[in-house]
């Protein structure tokens, strides 16, 4: 575009190289600590809360509060595989029936007992809520005993457990719902690790320990360890960082990538980074020229230098993408990511060959829509420069995010750069993005073979089997290139030394019950 | 026998405007004295320096103007009008009335408050007593229902009434000298005479000397006993009113006379003064400032400053033509 | 004059003036309401999509959310419903949280008003003595210094001032918290500590404008005839300046003060963000970004109402300060 943009890009490029060389990235993975009990953790969060009503469409930050307040029937264990939550165990006597055994002796923090009747009530709330559509296949939920439940579905529902692990399927106190009415979003009551002490959505959310929480750590010690967790809204990144350096807050919920090197240099502060489940990526409109031709899509795929973008635009904090499955996923092919088709570095020769195969040997022109967030703008400019190398002339069309989404949801684009936070289960990703008619399949991609694989994966019995099928689908997807995956952003957090137990899963969830002071 | 010290004496007064060092003289070598209870008129066209002279005496020169030379004495005591002590003298020993009564009163203070302020500026009177005194003062300047009017705002008063208020304020402390700078110029004709009579009467009552700045020779004749004629910041002629106006020596005074209707004399030689007064040279430039407009001017008038010389009984003037010249014969 | 009849007349005139004002207010509010409604909808971006982003999984969810938010109705319908509710005092509910907009606004008002008032007081405390001092010594080095200070205040972006203050008071000397807000009722000392830097930030900006205004006005007033009259009376110079010149200079000053109070509401957006104050400015941008229409509409209406009230306040100040205006209004 303009010289100014180019210069900006180059400036950030040099900064990125410097960072990558310093090797400060250190994910806190295994905290092996003897947890100290007590104390307050103050977390600085970058935006206001909207509502903590889990059945509404609320923001990512809101879900982070919810996960610390409310339990779900199913949770994720290590490696993101469904594990027991309030449901102790489950079985599937036939394709259309699920039986859950519920945890006994659990109460909601208002004293209401947790039992099968409460779960039935919650299913009602879930299905009335904004995400009720996710559970449309359920025909009945019946309490078969005080702590036993039977769920029947109209058709096979292989992703039920995954759905039940989502925050929109939280278990809440029926009595509290009845008492709070419209105000439930201000004071949700569940059985989770913490309960709300005070809540001012634009300012501060204060949680205190739920002394009766059922979960124990590996040593059998009751969790959570902290007495209180304060979520303080600090919308300005600069002042939030300063608050961390003065010790007014202990934990920075979202660390902007450009600030990471500076933060990491402070002796009082640890920076934690982990790859997320999300992508920064390009949508192609597969139903119209030039990208109705798979070779045109592959040309772009090969022309992108992912490593350069990660270094320059993300200050070395991201990971070059190798395909739709991210390194954090249980389905990730560690031996040969994405089948090895997409390398971190660009392959201009391959790109030119694809252009020739598409009958576009002289390249082509296209417009690329992108949101005007600074780092996505920089990324769009980098892609523009890289595609120019192989003769693809890109006109950038930066729009405010609202405008971008309007174009995206109307499938009104040729090529569109955007990011997303990812899903913890590949079923939710593949169904939505790559299946014909999927919810996020805005590029109108369709491939019967891939559809069949996606369905097969959903029906597979074991995790290993599902992983194998998704990897097979991934190979075909990379070859068909309905998207150009660029990079996997990192979840970046900063915390003061002396805070232990934080595990960065890269799923944008802050599990405060694992954290302790000292 | 020593005469009583004059109410005001001014010696060698010079006033300049503009930045120090690069200023322009607007008043040069002005000197006069007013005996106690005397009435001096200072006359001249606009730009003649008469207002500047008055303001310099009161120490009220506007921003950018300053006195550069001269000595001013009040009742025989030398004062520094620009000095910090002047605030104690102003309003008590010297008082002043201005030309435009419409703007001379503070629009956001009641008339009473402004009078009380004047009273209390120089006396320890209680606010209540000062208010009573203010009402008396309003009565003295013939404002009806004075006690009620104390709470009125200036904008509720006519121009004539405002000037009465100004007079009341000025005379509160029975000043030795009242300076009235064109006090009636902004008023309509019927009011003018009333105001002048009021000033005249009150000055007599209080024994105040009056320094009246005006361009109206009719007023001079009616209310003053001596006169100073200024042109271009310099004194052209000075003396008793009857002598100066009865037999003007200086060509400028004569020209000025032409601006009032001839009364009883044959004045066929009097022409309206030609030229514009704007073109006056600085008050310290060599030559006679009036020379450019003077019908009788000679070469020396433009280059040599004429001396101040007696020109008859108690009259003095500054004009080369009054001196015996090599060509012989004075103007008279 | 001064009789009962005239008092009655004056009362009627005042009542008429008040009625006219109320009518103007209604027109302004409906106008603002309409413009905001249309502008918001002219901006691209659908609240449902923005809230969910690509986490929105299926079109059912979207349709359901749209219906719940009333966004499936026609624009005219939405407008009329909203306008009707507004007239009955109901500003609707947040699309995101379902909380009544009135609650959100009432909660956000105290910090913003406190910030605005503190900043204005700081601005006045700075500007009156400095402006007057500069005017009295116009052209002197002191005047130049004050003018430079004022121009710095005006031209430095508020976030630079804010961060400068943070580095100084919070990071270097650790006297004040970097950011955060506590309600006065909960902790008065903590509240003042939290508000000190934001108020100073806005106060310095506003103070700069007001210093210039005060200086200019006092210089003008000092040249007026009534000041010469006061001096002629023998009134001391300080009294001349404050009792006479400043009192008259207060009239144009109050005009600018009113404008600044309005500007304050927009300045609050940045300051409230930097210092994490949950006020109206934050409420507005957060919800513009989220396209939470009812919240933005409600907030803008309240802000417009505040503007109108500030204007009325300025008019009231004129009446207080200038008897000529009082006379004109009763006529």
The geometry of chain C reads as globular
Radius of gyration of chain C, whole Å? 24 Å
Number of helices of chain C: 13
Uncertain runs of chain A: 1-32
What is the CATH third-level topology name of the largest domain in chain C?
MetI-like fold
Task: Provide the helix percentage of chain C.
Answer: over 70%
**Computed Rg of chain A:** 24 Å
Total E-strand runs of chain A: 23
How is the largest sheet of chain A built, in terms of strand order? 10-11-12-1-13-21-14
Number of domains of chain C: 2
Q: Give the helix tally of chain A.
A: 15
CATH superfamily of the largest domain in chain C: MetI-like
- Report the mean per-residue pLDDT of chain A as an integer: 88
CATH class of the domain at 279-488 in chain A: Alpha Beta
Task: Describe the protein.
The complex is a heterotrimer of chains A (about 525), B (about 325) and C (about 325). Chain A is an alpha+beta fold and about 525 residues long. Chain A is built from 15 helices and 23 strands. Chain A has a domain at about 280-490: Roll (Dipeptide-binding Protein, domain 3). Chain A has helices at about 5-20, 60-65, 115-130, 160-165, 175-180, 235-245, 260-265, 295-305, 305-315, 350-355, 375-390, 400-410, 425-435, 450-460, 465-480, and strands at about 40-45, 70, 75, 80-85, 85-95, 95-100, 140-145, 150-155, 170, 195-200, 205-210, 230-235, 250, 270-275, 280-285, 320, 365-370, 390-400, 415-420, 485-490, 490-495, 500, 515. In chain A, the strands form 6 sheets. Chain A has a 7-stranded mixed beta sheet. In chain A, strands 16-20-15-19-17-18 form a 6-stranded mixed beta sheet. In chain A, strand 7 and strand 8 form a beta hairpin. Chain A is globular. Residues about 1-30 of chain A have low confidence and may be disordered. With about 325 residues, chain B is of the alpha/beta class. Chain B contains 12 helices and 12 strands. Chain B has an 8-stranded mixed beta sheet, with helices on both faces. In chain B, helix 4 (about 110-120) packs across helix 5 (about 125-140). Chain B is globular. Chain C folds into 2 domains: about 1-85; about 105-320, MetI-like fold. Chain C contains 13 helices and no strands. Chain C has helices at about 5-40, 45-50, 60-70, 75-85, 100-135, 140-155, 160-170, 190-220, 225-230, 235-275, 280-290, 295-320, 325-330. Chain C is globular. Chains in contact: A-C, B-C. At the A-C interface, helix 6 and helix 12 of A face helix 2, helix 3, helix 7 and helix 11 of C.
């Amino acid at each position: 575009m303009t010289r100014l943009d180019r210069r900006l890009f180059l400036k950030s490029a040099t900064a990125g190289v410097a960072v990558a060389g310093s090797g400060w990235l250190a994910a806190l993975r295994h905290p092996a600590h003897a947890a100290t009990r007590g104390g307050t953790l103050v977390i600085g969060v970058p935006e206001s809360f909207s509502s903590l009503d889990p059945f509404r469409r609320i923001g990512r930050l809101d879900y982070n509060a919810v996960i610390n307040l409310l339990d779900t029937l199913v949770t994720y264990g290590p490696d993101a595989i469904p594990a027991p939550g309030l449901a102790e165990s489950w079985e599937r006597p036939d394709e259309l029936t699920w039986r859950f055994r519920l945890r006994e002796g659990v109460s909601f923090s208002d004293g209401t007992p947790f039992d099968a009747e409460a779960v039935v009530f919650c299913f009602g709330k879930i299905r009335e809520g904004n995400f009720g559509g996710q559970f449309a296949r359920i025909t009945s939920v019946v309490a078969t005993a005080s702590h036993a439940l039977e769920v029947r579905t109209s058709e096979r529902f292989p992703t039920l457990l995954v759905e039940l692990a989502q925050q929109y399927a939280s278990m809440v106190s029926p009595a509290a719902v009845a008492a709070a009415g419209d105000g439930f979003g201000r004071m949700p009551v569940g059985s989770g690790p913490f309960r709300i002490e005070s809540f001012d959505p634009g300012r501060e959310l204060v949680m205190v320990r739920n002394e009766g929480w059922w979960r124990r750590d590996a040593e059998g010690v009751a969790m959570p360890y902290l007495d209180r967790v304060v979520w303080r809204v600090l919308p300005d990144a600069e002042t939030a960082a300063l608050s961390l350096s003065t010790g007014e807050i202990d934990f920075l919920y979202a660390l902007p990538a450009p600030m990471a090197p500076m933060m990491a240099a402070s002796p009082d502060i640890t920076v934690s980074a982990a790859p997320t489940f999300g992508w920064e990526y390009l949508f192609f409109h597969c139903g119209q020229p030039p990208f109705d031709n798979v070779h045109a899509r592959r040309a772009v795929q090969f022309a992108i230098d992912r490593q350069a973008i990660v270094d320059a635009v993300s200050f070395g904090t991201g990971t070059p993408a190798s395909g739709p499955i991210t390194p954090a996923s249980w389905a990730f092919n560690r031996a040969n990511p994405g089948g090895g088709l997409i390398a971190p570095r660009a392959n201009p020769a391959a790109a030119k060959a694809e252009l020739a195969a598409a009958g576009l040997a002289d390249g082509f022109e296209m417009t690329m829509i992108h949101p005007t967030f600074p780092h996505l703008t920089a990324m769009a400019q980098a892609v523009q420069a890289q595609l120019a190398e192989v003769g693809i002339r890109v006109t950038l069309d930066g729009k405010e995010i609202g405008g971008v989404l309007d174009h995206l949801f109307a499938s009104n684009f040729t090529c569109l750069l955007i990011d997303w936070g990812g899903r913890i289960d590949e079923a939710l990703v593949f169904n939505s993005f790559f299946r014909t008619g999927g919810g996020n399949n805005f590029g109108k991609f369709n491939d019967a073979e891939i559809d069949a694989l996606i369905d097969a994966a959903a029906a597979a019995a074991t995790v290993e089997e599902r992983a194998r099928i998704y990897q097979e689908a991934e190979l075909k997807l990379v070859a068909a290139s309905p998207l150009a995956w660029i990079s996997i952003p990192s979840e970046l957090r900063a915390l003061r030394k002396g805070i232990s137990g934080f595990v960065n899963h890269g799923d944008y969830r802050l599990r405060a019950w694992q954290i302790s002071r000292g | 026998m020593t005469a009583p010290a004059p109410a005001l004496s001014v010696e060698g007064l010079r006033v300049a405007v503009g930045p120090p060092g690069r200023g322009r003289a607007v008043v040069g070598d002005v000197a006069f004295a007013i005996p106690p209870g005397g009435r001096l008129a200072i006359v001249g066209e606009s730009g003649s320096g008469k207002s500047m002279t008055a303001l310099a005496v009161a120490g009220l020169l506007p921003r950018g103007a300053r006195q550069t030379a001269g000595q001013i004495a009040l009742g025989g005591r030398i004062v520094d009008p620009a000095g910090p002590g002047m605030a104690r003298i102003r309003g008590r020993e010297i008082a002043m009335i201005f030309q435009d009564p419409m703007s001379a009163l503070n629009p956001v203070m009641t008339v009473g408050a402004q009078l009380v302020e004047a009273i209390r500026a120089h006396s320890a009177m209680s606010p209540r007593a000062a208010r009573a005194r203010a009402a008396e003062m309003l009565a003295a300047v013939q404002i009806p229902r004075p006690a009620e009017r104390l709470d009125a705002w200036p904008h509720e008063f006519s121009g004539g009434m405002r000037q009465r208020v100004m007079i009341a304020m000025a005379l509160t402390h029975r000043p030795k000298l009242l300076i009235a700078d064109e006090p009636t110029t902004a008023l309509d004709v019927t009011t003018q005479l009333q105001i002048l009579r009021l000033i005249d009467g009150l000055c007599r009552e209080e024994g105040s000397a009056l320094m009246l700045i005006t361009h109206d020779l009719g007023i001079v004749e009616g209310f003053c006993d001596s006169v100073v004629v200024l042109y271009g910041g310099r004194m052209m002629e000075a003396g008793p009113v009857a002598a100066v106006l009865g037999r003007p020596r200086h060509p400028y005074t004569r020209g000025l006379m032409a601006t009032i209707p001839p009364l009883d004399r044959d004045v066929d030689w009097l022409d309206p003064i030609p030229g514009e007064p704007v073109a006056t040279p600085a008050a310290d430039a060599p030559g006679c400032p009036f020379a450019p407009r003077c019908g009788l001017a000679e070469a020396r008038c433009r280059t040599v400053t004429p001396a101040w010389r007696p020109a008859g009984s108690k009259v003095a003037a500054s004009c080369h033509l009054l001196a015996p010249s090599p060509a012989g014969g004075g103007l008279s | 004059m001064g009789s009962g009849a005239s008092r009655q007349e004056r009362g009627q005139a005042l009542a008429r003036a008040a009625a006219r004002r109320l009518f103007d207010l209604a027109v302004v509010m409906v106008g603002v309401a309409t413009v905001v409604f249309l502008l918001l909808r002219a901006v691209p971006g659908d609240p449902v999509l923005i809230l969910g982003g690509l986490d929105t999984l299926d079109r059912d969810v979207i349709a359901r959310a749209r219906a719940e938010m009333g966004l499936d109705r026609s624009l005219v319908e939405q407008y009329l419903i909203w306008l009707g509710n507004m007239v009955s005092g109901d500003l609707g509910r947040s699309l995101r949280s379902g909380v009544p907009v009135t609650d959100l606004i009432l909660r956000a008002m105290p910090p913003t008003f406190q910030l605005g008032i503190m900043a204005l007081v700081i601005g006045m405390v700075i500007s009156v003595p400095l402006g007057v001092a500069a005017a009295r010594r116009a052209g002197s080095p002191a005047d130049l210094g004050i003018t430079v200070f004022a121009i710095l205040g005006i031209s430095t972006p508020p976030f630079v001032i804010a961060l400068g203050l943070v580095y100084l008071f919070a990071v270097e000397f650790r006297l004040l918290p970097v950011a955060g807000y506590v309600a006065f009722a909960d902790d008065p000392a903590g509240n003042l500590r939290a508000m000190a830097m934001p108020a100073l930030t806005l106060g310095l900006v506003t103070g700069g404008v007001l210093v210039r205004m005060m200086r200019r006005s006092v210089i003008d007033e000092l040249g007026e005839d009534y000041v010469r009259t006061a001096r002629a009376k023998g009134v001391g110079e300080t009294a001349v300046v404050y009792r006479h010149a400043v009192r008259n200079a207060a009239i144009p000053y109050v005009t600018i003060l009113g404008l600044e109070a309005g500007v304050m509401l927009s300045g609050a957006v940045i300051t409230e963000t930097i210092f994490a104050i949950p006020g109206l400015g934050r409420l507005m941008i957060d919800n513009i970004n989220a396209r939470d229409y009812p919240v933005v509409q409600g907030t803008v209406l309240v802000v417009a109402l505040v503007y109108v009230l500030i204007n009325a306040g300025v008019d009231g100040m004129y009446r207080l300060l200038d008897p000529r205006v009082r006379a004109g209004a009763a006529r």
